[in-house]
Amino acid sequence: MMKDPLASYPGYVLRRAAHAAGAELTMRLEPLGLRQSDVSMLILIEANPGITASALGRMLDIQRANMVPILKRMEDADLIVREAIDGKSMGLEVTRAGLARLADARAVIDQFENELLERVPAEHRHHLLPALNALWR
Amino acid sequence: MMKDPLASYPGYVLRRAAHAAGAELTMRLEPLGLRQSDVSMLILIEANPGITASALGRMLDIQRANMVPILKRMEDADLIVREAIDGKSMGLEVTRAGLARLADARAVIDQFENELLERVPAEHRHHLLPALNALWR
DNA sequence: TATTGTTATACTCTATAACTATA
DNA sequence: TATAGTTATAGAGTATAACAATA
């Protein structure tokens, strides 16, 4: 058997756990034709109607320039619309069709998040979210 | 202020925490001319001398095909050597220069991992690693 | 002067298929 | 028959620079 000294490094295990979870969620969203970033954006736009692409990108840590093709694809898929706020900014809204897809995605995600937490032994379970939030913010 | 409903999703926070930590470690390793994968490989090769590229890839969840350019770069940088085990397999070893670089990298990583854990409130701290390991394995 | 949206571009990481040679 | 190493290639995600138009 191979030795794995990396298992004791929190940073490494964090990366592996995130990758494993991310790959699984991507697989589960695939039948819906949605990517993780799509769902994140739909959730944030629904919670903040009229948000601009720049502000959305700042929340998700995605560069302005990289938002363009993503939002264009979502607009082409009739998931969101862009409406002029003023001559410079565009406000984002979730379409009716987008809300329906979002409802499906939420069912997938809620199930996924529940399963994720169930894998964590009970004595550690409620420490996960606050610990991770402390690492991120 | 914008609403952020994503903050309550463990999977999302996991991804953000891993990305933030990864970006920071990458920055700290950059002066050493090493990437995270380089250091992971050096650690694993040192712990398992003579390991093959395929076995190393399986441990790190990196495809065989993607190991080729990585190992070639590390060999060109005189961090590792490949020695024939038989007519098919090559055993990997860390060079003397590789060991020196690995020592520098370990100092960076140990400091980084300590700081990472210090950011987690004490009551959650020792739950992080077991919780993450449960998600991954 | 700072910000928004945009185009173009490049680099890294990752995934797949196919091939050769050997165990 | 399964495995190791390799090549080629394509798709994501991400990062930077630059520009026009507007706040």
From TrEMBL, chains A, B:
Q: Does the keyword DNA-binding apply?
A: yes
**Gene3D superfamilies named among the record's database cross-references:** Winged helix-like DNA-binding domain superfamily/Winged helix DNA-binding domain (1.10.10.10)
Q: Superkingdom, according to UniProt?
A: Bacteria
Keyword set for this entry? DNA-binding, Transcription, Transcription regulation
Give every HTH marR-type domain span. Answer: 7-137
Q: Which PROSITE patterns match?
A: HTH_MARR_2
The record, for PANTHER family, names: TRANSCRIPTIONAL REGULATOR, MARR, TRANSCRIPTIONAL REPRESSOR OF EMRAB OPERON
Q: What is this protein called?
A: MarR family transcriptional regulator
Organism of origin: Aurantiacibacter gilvus
